[in-house]
């Protein structure tokens, strides 16, 4: 019975990771048409808003898997830090070589991008910082009661999400965490703790509960769409104000999506195989897919011949996601490449 429960949770985690991976690709495909008003702007806003939970899902899942375990600090670092450092360095070199400024010496560019991440690789830098803090945050988490953790989450939501959004709207120079010395309650660590808390409590999300989560996700995503359209129209330029990962609506949407996805504990056998393949390849897909976006859209212009505007983004996303997953699957057949994909 215990093994069956572990298998159920393992599948739920794989489903969550796979969906988050697919959503990240969609977010970056939507970015192609978001920054200028045009026929594809509205579809890009809708699809992007529905997928804004991708990065929070990754962090919540990592917290669920890491913070509840009692591991010595040094073995934890030896096991996990190289898994991030190796792909970070490798993919930084690849992207600097392919897309860097040819007028600047390659080593100078590499040094620059190892200190300041190359676009989408920011996620690996943030994950590295969270992993360094995880053994200590994990000890506090395991020693805390559910009520104490809820207070931490409430303070994080206030400081990192609510006040963060207010600061973006009224004065970008106003930084509440720095002003009040409340950095402990800022950043993505809250998603780490939130994921671990939801895994510890394991709230019931079957039947009515599951579909309630789906409705909350759709409702919060719809408000993000509405807010983005109204605010962007008001200032006469596309604006990502409501898209920030550290905002109340994205946090609510992320919790609802996480609870819904982690309630999926059974699928047809073929679907399980596909889900686990994508889950295992998620790091490689995350790192590689911007290269295929550039190749398909910016270089080959494969999107030019597509017709219906609401189908254009899903078609491009499908082509890029499937191609990237296939390439990563083949790359992982070679043992040396498994460490960077």
TrEMBL record:
Keywords: Acyltransferase, Cell membrane, Membrane, Transferase, Transmembrane, Transmembrane helix. Pfam families: Acyl_transf_3. It is a multi-pass membrane protein. Residues 12-327 form the Acyltransferase domain. The keyword Ribosomal protein does not apply. The chain crosses the membrane at residues 20-38, 44-68, 80-100, 120-137, 149-170, 182-199, 211-235, 241-261, 273-297, 309-331. This is Acyltransferase family protein. The keyword Membrane applies. It is found in: Cell membrane. Belongs to the acyltransferase 3 family. One of its GO terms (cellular component) is plasma membrane. GO terms for molecular function: O-acetyltransferase activity. GO terms for biological process: enterobacterial common antigen biosynthetic process.
């Amino acid at each position: 019975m215990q093994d069956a429960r572990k298998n159920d949770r393992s599948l739920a985690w794989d489903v969550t990771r796979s969906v988050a991976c697919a959503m990240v690709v969609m977010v970056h495909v939507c970015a192609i048409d978001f920054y200028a008003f045009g026929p594809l702007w509205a579809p890009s806003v809708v699809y992007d808003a529905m997928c804004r939970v991708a990065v929070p899902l990754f962090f919540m899942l990592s917290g669920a898997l890491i913070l509840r375990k009692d591991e010595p600090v040094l073995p934890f670092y030896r096991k996990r830090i190289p898994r991030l450092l190796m792909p970070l360095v490798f993919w930084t070199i690849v992207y600097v070589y392919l897309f860097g400024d040819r007028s600047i010496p390659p080593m100078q560019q590499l040094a620059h991008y190892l200190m300041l991440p190359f676009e989408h690789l920011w996620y690996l830098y943030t994950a590295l910082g969270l992993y360094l803090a995880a053994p200590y945050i994990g000890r506090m988490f395991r020693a805390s009661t559910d009520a104490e953790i809820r207070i931490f989450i409430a303070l994080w939501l206030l400081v990192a999400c609510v006040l963060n959004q207010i600061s973006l709207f009224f004065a970008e120079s106003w930084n509440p965490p720095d002003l009040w010395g409340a950095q402990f309650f800022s950043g993505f660590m809250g998603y780490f703790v939130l994921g671990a808390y939801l895994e510890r409590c394991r709230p019931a999300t079957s039947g009515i509960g599951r579909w309630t989560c789906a409705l909350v996700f759709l409702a919060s995503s719809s408000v993000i769409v509405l807010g983005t359209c109204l605010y962007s129209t008001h200032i006469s330029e596309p604006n990502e104000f409501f898209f920030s990962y550290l905002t109340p609506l994205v946090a609510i949407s992320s919790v609802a999506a996480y609870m819904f996805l982690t309630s999926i504990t059974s699928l047809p056998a073929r679907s399980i195989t596909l889900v686990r393949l994508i889950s295992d390849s998620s790091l490689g897909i995350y790192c590689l897919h911007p290269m295929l976006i550039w190749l398909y859209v910016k270089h080959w212009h494969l999107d030019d011949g597509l017709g219906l505007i609401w189908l254009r983004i899903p078609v491009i996303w499908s082509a890029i996601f499937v191609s990237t997953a296939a390439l990563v699957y083949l790359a992982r057949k070679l043992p040396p490449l498994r460490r960077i994909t």
